[in-house]
């Protein structure tokens, strides 16, 4: 599916530019985007290294284990296939905590680490496991309690009530998460063949 | 409330950077060595995601710059009227799963143009906060560990975004409309 979407984005983009007689835009945009990919990755390196370094300290100090124990009833329910003392659980919890607190750039390093650890449990290395799909369902539905970036933009724009939207955001994100988790359960069997 | 939240986000990172190493130190962890060990892993992961990042960014970049995105917006505009949504937020809705930076830019623009406390401004803020960049998350997360078959993850992610959008529309109209 991702292959088709990727191809569609490219083909419709190039055809549209051609029909509008602005084909040179394609070259420009493609080169610019390619360069951007590297810039973004390099910007991520520092943040990744910082958070994974701090997480390693927390891990060795037994702090992650402690946090994992506290939320265990909840995580057992959502990730039944992940053994309860597996390191993946710690990374998943750190990723979700960062998302909930609106620390977007800390969430990505923990999330990528969680994927590596979930991959260790995955019998078929090219096909997403149930636990991976559930984890990404949680991630793409974006559980947030403090939408910090949006609040900052609203403050900058001189809003009289920059946090007015916290309640509505929590409502919308909760709905999204409920739907994502239910659909994940529902569709899991259908895609068992790994298509 | 705004003060409380901005203060909280201001203090969150320094608090973590202080408390984790201090507590671990008293639990006899060699904190600096542990940090370096973890940080090394971060480096390789960031390098590994580059091809997936470029692949996605190029396709999305071409789609946007060529005007294809505007064509799609014009096609979908009548649908927005049917569900009672202001057409102004449609570009944001389409951009949201594709590009995090692009969506944030559109949200900022809508807030600037219509005002943070307008219905459109509040709707854009709620959408931005309650949905995520599905394509980025999937390609980068799966790509970094070599997963080729996403199974139902993309469908679930996009439907979660759609749900977040519809729920935002419903609740913002109800509360502020």
Keywords, please?
heterodimer; A: 195 residues; mainly alpha; 0% strand; globular; B: 177 residues
Concise structural overview:
The complex is a heterodimer of chains A (195) and B (177). With 195 residues, chain A is mostly helical.
Please explain how this structure is put together.
Chain A has 195 residues and is an all-alpha fold. In chain A, 75% of the residues lie in helices and 0% in strands. Chain A has one domain (26-188). The mean pLDDT of chain A is 89. Chain B has 177 residues and is mostly helical. Helix content of chain B is 80%, strand content 0%. Chain B contains 9 helices and no strands. In chain B, helix 3 runs antiparallel to helix 8 (134-144), helix 6 (100-114) runs antiparallel to helix 7 and helix 7 packs antiparallel against helix 9. The mean pLDDT of chain B is 90. Chains A and B meet through helix 1, helix 2, helix 6, helix 7 and helix 8 of A and helix 1, helix 2, helix 3, helix 6 and helix 7 of B.
* Share in helix of chain A: over 70%
Count of individual domains of chain A = 1
Biggest interface between protein chains, with counts per chain? Answer: A-B, 112 and 102 residues
Task: Tell me the radius of gyration of chain A.
Answer: 20 Å
Distance between the termini of chain A: 9 Å
The helix count of chain A comes to 9
Tell me, briefly, the overall form of chain B: globular
Total separate domains of chain B: 2
SSE series of chain B: HHHHHHHHH
Shape label of chain A: globular
Overall average residue pLDDT of chain A: 89
Poorly predicted segments of chain B: none
Oligomer: heterodimer
- The whole-angstrom Rg of chain B is 20 Å
Integer average pLDDT of chain B: 90
What structural class should be given to the helix and strand makeup of chain B?
mainly alpha
Q: Helical residue percent of chain B? A: over 70%
Mind summarizing the main beta sheet of chain A?
A: none
- Major beta-sheet overview of chain B: none
């Amino acid at each position: 599916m991702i292959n088709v979407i990727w191809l569609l984005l490219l083909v419709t983009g190039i055809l549209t530019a051609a029909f509008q007689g602005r084909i040179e835009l394609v070259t420009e945009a493609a080169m610019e985007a390619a360069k951007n990919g590297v810039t973004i990755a390099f910007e991520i390196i520092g943040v990744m290294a910082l958070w994974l370094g701090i997480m390693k300290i927390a891990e060795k100090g037994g702090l992650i284990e402690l946090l994992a124990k506290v939320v265990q009833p909840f995580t057992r329910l959502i990730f039944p296939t992940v053994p309860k003392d597996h390191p993946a659980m710690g990374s998943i919890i750190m990723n979700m905590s960062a998302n909930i607190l609106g620390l977007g750039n800390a969430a990505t390093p923990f999330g990528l680490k969680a994927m590596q650890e979930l991959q260790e449990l995955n019998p078929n290395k090219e096909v997403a496991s149930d636990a991976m799909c559930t984890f990404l369902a949680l991630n793409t539905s974006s559980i947030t309690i403090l939408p910090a970036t949006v609040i900052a933009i609203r403050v900058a724009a001189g809003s009289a009530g920059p946090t007015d939207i916290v309640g509505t955001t929590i409502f919308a994100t909760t709905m999204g998460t409920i739907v994502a988790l239910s659909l994940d359960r529902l569709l899991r069997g259908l895609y068992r063949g790994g298509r | 409330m705004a003060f409380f939240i901005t203060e909280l986000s201001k203090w969150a990172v320094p608090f973590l950077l202080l408390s984790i190493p201090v507590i671990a130190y008293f639990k006899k962890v060699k904190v600096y060595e542990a940090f370096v060990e973890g940080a090394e892993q971060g480096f390789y992961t960031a390098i590994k995601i580059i091809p997936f990042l470029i692949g996605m960014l190029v396709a999305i970049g071409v789609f946007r710059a060529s005007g294809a995105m505007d064509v799609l917006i014009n096609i979908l505009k009548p649908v927005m009227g049917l569900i009672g949504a202001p057409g102004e937020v449609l570009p944001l809705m389409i951009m949201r799963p594709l590009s995090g930076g692009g969506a944030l830019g559109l949200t900022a623009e809508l807030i600037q143009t219509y005002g943070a406390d307008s219905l459109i401004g509040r709707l854009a803020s709620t959408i931005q906060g309650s949905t995520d960049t599905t394509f980025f998350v999937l390609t980068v997360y799966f790509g970094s560990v070599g997963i080729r078959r996403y199974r139902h993850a993309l469908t679930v992610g996009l439907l979660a975004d759609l749900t977040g959008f519809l729920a935002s529309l419903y609740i913002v109209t109800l509360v502020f409309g």
